[in-house]
TrEMBL record, chain A:
Coiled-coil region: none
Family of this protein: Belongs to the STT3 family.
Parts of the chain that traverse the membrane: 20-42, 86-106, 118-137, 143-161, 173-199, 205-228, 240-265, 271-289, 301-325, 366-386, 393-410, 508-532
Family annotation (Gene3D superfamilies): 3.40.50.12610
Gene Ontology annotations for the cellular component aspect, listed alphabetically: endoplasmic reticulum membrane
Example of a GO MF term: metal ion binding
Chain ranges of the Oligosaccharyl transferase STT3 N-terminal domain: 21-423
Reaction equation(s) it catalyzes: a di-trans,poly-cis-dolichyl diphosphooligosaccharide + L-asparaginyl-[protein] = N(4)-(oligosaccharide-(1->4)-N-acetyl-beta-D-glucosaminyl-(1->4)-N-acetyl-beta-D-glucosaminyl)-L-asparaginyl-[protein] + a di-trans,poly-cis-dolichyl diphosphate + H(+)
The name this protein goes by in its record: dolichyl-diphosphooligosaccharide--protein glycotransferase
Annotated region described as Disordered, given as residue ranges: 467-493, 749-780
Cofactor(s) needed: Mn(2+); Mg(2+)
Short name of any one Pfam family annotated for the protein: STT3
TrEMBL record, chain B:
Protein's name according to its UniProt entry: Dolichyl-diphosphooligosaccharide--protein glycosyltransferase subunit 1
Pathway in which this enzyme or protein is active: Protein modification; protein glycosylation
Main location: endoplasmic reticulum
Species in which this protein is naturally found: Ensete ventricosum
Function statement: Subunit of the oligosaccharyl transferase (OST) complex that catalyzes the initial transfer of a defined glycan (Glc(3)Man(9)GlcNAc(2) in eukaryotes) from the lipid carrier dolichol-pyrophosphate to an asparagine residue within an Asn-X-Ser/Thr consensus motif in nascent polypeptide chains, the first step in protein N-glycosylation. N-glycosylation occurs cotranslationally and the complex associates with the Sec61 complex at the channel-forming translocon complex that mediates protein translocation across the endoplasmic reticulum (ER). All subunits are required for a maximal enzyme activity.
A biological process term (GO) from this entry: protein N-linked glycosylation via asparagine
GO CC, alphabetical: oligosaccharyltransferase complex
Lineage: Eukaryota, Viridiplantae, Streptophyta, Embryophyta, Tracheophyta
Location within or outside the cell: Endoplasmic reticulum membrane
Amino acid sequence: MAASSETKGEGTLRKAFGGVLGFFILLLIGAFAFSIRLFSVIKYESVIHEFDPYFNYRVTQFLTKNGIYDFWNWFDDRTWYPLGRVIGGTVYPGLTLTAGSIWWLLNNLNIPLSVETVCVFTAPIFSANASWATYLLTKEVKGTGAGLTAAALLAMVPSYISRSVAGSYDNEAVAIFALIFTFYLYIKTLNTGSLFYATLNALSYFYMVCSWGGYTFIINLIPMHVLLCIVTGRYSPRLYIAYAPLVVLGTLLASLVPVVGFNAVMTSEHFASFLVFIIIHVVALVYYIKGILSPKMFKVAVTLVVTIGIAVCCAVLAILIALVASSPTKGWSGRSLSLLDPTYASKYIPIIASVSEHQPPTWPSYFMDINVLAFLVPAGIVACFLPLSDASSFMVLYITTSVYFSGVMVRLMLVLAPAACIMSGIALSEAFDVFTRSIKLQLPKLFESPSGSGDIDSTQDEVVKVDNKSATDKSETAPKERPSKKNRKKEREIVETTIKKPLNAKRLLVLPLEASSVAILLLIIFGAFYVVHCVWAAAEAYSAPSIVLTSHSHDGLHVFDDFREAYAWLRHNTDVDDKVASWWDYGYQTTAMANRTVIVDNNTWNNTHIATVGTAMSSPEKPAWEIFNSLDVKYVLVVFGGLVGYPSDDINKFLWMVRIGGGVFPHIREPDYLRDGQYRIDAHATPTMLNCLMYKLSYYRFVETDGKGFDRVRRTEIGKKHFKLTHFEEVFTTHHWMVRIYKLKSPKNRIRGKSKKSKSNSKTGPSNSKRHSNLRKNPW
Amino acid sequence: MGRTSAAMAVFLFLLLSLFSILQLVSSSPEIRVLSAERRIDVTAPITRVFLTLKVENAGTSEVSEVLLAFPPTEAEHLAILKASVAEGKRKKKTYVPLSVNPSESPDAPNGARLYSVSLRSPLKSGEATTVEAFYVLTHLLEPFPAEISQSEAQLVYYRDSATLLSPYHIVEQITSIKTPSNKVESFTSVDPTSRVGSELRYGPYHDHGPYSYSPVIVHFENNNPFAVVEELVREIEISHWGSLQIRDHYKLKHAGARHKGVFSRLEYQFKQSISGVASFRHLLTKLPPRVHSVYYRDEIGNISSSHLRIDSHKSELEIEPRYPLFGGWKATFTIGYGLPLQDFLFESHDGRRYLNFSFGCPLIETMVDDLTVKVILPEGSRNPTAAVPFPVDQHLETTYSYLDVVGRTTVVLQKRNVVPEHNIPFQVYYDFNPIFMLAEPLMLISAVFLFFVACITYVHVDLSIGKSS
């Protein structure tokens, strides 16, 4: 009796120690998740990355400057000229509001950080949050050990790092946290049946809706899981509590977000949730009736209800189908459709297909992005089936669907990453559990077999310890629970007893000592490989801000800062209301960095407008001039990598311009730009290609740099070398020629002849004639 | 109608009589300038003039001040005016600075502005002395043609008078103008005028009466960088924890002839000798020695093209704006750095602390149109006073920095038309109690402490409404 109380005291101490240890491990995981993402700041600088983050940054600047009400009503006239864009109603405000409130809070504490700094570090902060959320979620599914492992894995998974390095200020940065946290609260509600968590779940879902269009994944996955539970006969009141408030509150809250609005009830993405909502009510009613009626009466009632119910359902379904079918896209948005039918986008919406992150991934990208997790996931799925609980079945469903989605679009690898981490966390934790237990059970035998005594004692001791350990695992949640929630304790006890049984069975599952120690060693090597890969990916592959490029040459680091050079030039040396035309990729950056009005930007909401710009770029000079002039464009910006070998330049994107332009304006035909189905810019290129505006603006006077006009990206000499521009003039080219800015010549100069002008204006005469003679040197 | 004109007449009469009284008091027509030598340096965008006047008191009474006159075009661009007098013989010759004050004179024609130089000892009748004056003028060179293309050189006009504008009779005078090169397109000839190499000489002229003026125009090539900082805000933040943080926000402009038409990178890169001669891409910044944590950035991030050279006497930062600046092009950027506090902060005899720092712009050979120096004193400092050796506008502000509660007192000094000659030390005196240094750490410690107390309370207090058995 005394001994048992002693072990009990020891147990509480161990519990407390385990709690503190777990807390510090979590703290370290958070710090690690934050700091592994700082490579970009240390290696480059604290700057916003890529394209979309610049838009988010600009929106945040507006929010912090003008306040929330102006933000909701913001009509942006500096983009999509002359249409403009209602930013407040078309943007997912979660990220902006998050960073805006962080900034506001800091500034009220007199910590004068700039908006840019706050934006740069939002993503790392939220990845720390995401790893903590992963811990919570996995702990609900498989206990603390798995939770910690999964959190550690998520903190450094390359796929997530690619979207959340410092400076990558994009929706996904906070959305992944929101996604995991929503799932956690769902599972938590499912495990506890608490309405409190159900409400929190709806709020968390609201945050997710605010943050990212990917919220549709949640609102489809959870109904699927509920349906699965119902079909497999796992319906319980807890399931009802977990689901019904989420749909009601979640939909209400979601429709508060301007960008979602009535879409929350009208588009097909949300139908599944309502369908399951009806089903769960029917099931709940059935269970209720079953409870109050005698079995015989119940059978009668079932037949009655089923006949009437089927009739009603058929009618409703018919109406629904008719409604949905009346819409051309069947009520689905283009991106969702391209998920369900991977070939859809390339057939009908070239804009979606033209984005590289919407392409299906290649196999190496799986290895690059989730690395060894890909091998651990199956083991995790197996572990989820031993035993299968509501929570683990949810995880299985999550991993299966996310594997499919990641196979359709590279971008959705991001959704797969948390699932893969959780699965691998479970797998690793279970494996370590089995191996260490078998070592633990056999080690004393190894040492004490010569003496022979105390053999039974020690094994008994072990059993006690193992039991203790499981108890600590289970009661980990206890300190955090409020005493007022003790009504749930009963339920937890049930769970514990169900888990204790397999634990006794596990005692039989003992592997040989040598095998298990070797396996542990291998697992550690495996994990170490993962860590090395992740750190490498964070440091080398994903930390480049893409607006600054660097190259290592024999005389040290060389920096290509051409984009900012061009944007800064535009910002300071053009009129504030000038319009700049470029391909849509550079729209966000131009508005944010150069503060000039653009024609199209990365939002791509108006296909016709983009097609107009695409048409202008693929037309000869004069029609292009006319198109641009009709849009009040004053400057045209092209990105050209031929001099330094920067591959993602406009010439390489040019076929998409032709395709998108041709989709709306049929006189632009893709075959005109291809020679025998091949895209080329050398001497064999088609005349249409060599005369189009994009070619001319890219290669204007390029031949004079090396005398041959050798393009280092296409690795060929250009087709048409000497030509002059009649409707455009070069006003700025950056140091490495990566950005070239041309000005539209004013129509007056074009109509009057040069001789006339020189006569009327004697001052400019000499310079004009000088230029003329310069040009005459060329054979053209 | 008649009434108003009568009133006007009375007013005019009063005014005239007032002037005549003033004239009796202040003007000193007894002074004669025996010789005047003027050396004008127009090689840089900043015009520097050295003037040597040998004045003689031809009157009967003692004279204690000498007047210098400037035409209104020069007066409004006058950045600094210094005068000194040479004392001692040959080798022991030292220049003693004299005080210069703006002055008024009724007989100055056409808005000519006068400055009076107070002599050290009054000049007795018949005595002569030599006064040296040095003054700097900005924005005086006017580019002509006002717009040039990339391949053209920049030509500027310099307008002045062949004779020195002076309220006195000048017996003999000579003016020389130094241009940056031999390339002088044209100049007004006022005999005798001669040109030797890059120097243009007007004079000697004899016996010109007061306020004689004969305008001349020199048209010459000047490809020196016409870098003008339109606005410079310097923030100097003192932390008694041992460092001085400086942030300089520049708005730079190429104020020369405007760039016209095409900018061809090809020509700029491959024909450097003939292309873009009037543009500039490098600027040199002189920073104090022992500078650390230097950054050079603008609103869209770091500018990667700069070089820092540090030695024990000075630090030099060579900066390159994002793009070469042609005429009329602008750029904004920020240079920030830290300095050890003990080099600049001292304690005066009366126990007050004072900051001793250089006024003016660290960019060499650059004029600043509008300079604001903000000295941010540590939180809790009181009674700030600034001692600047030339007139500036000053006022106080409050700045909030990291975790400030009451804010930091900030001394704001503003001056227009600043030239490198203004880079002389100024002082800001203030009272500071070192106990304030502990305010913020204590605040943080108490916040953390309160957090733990809150945690402990939360864990130990049962807030539930109903007790479950």
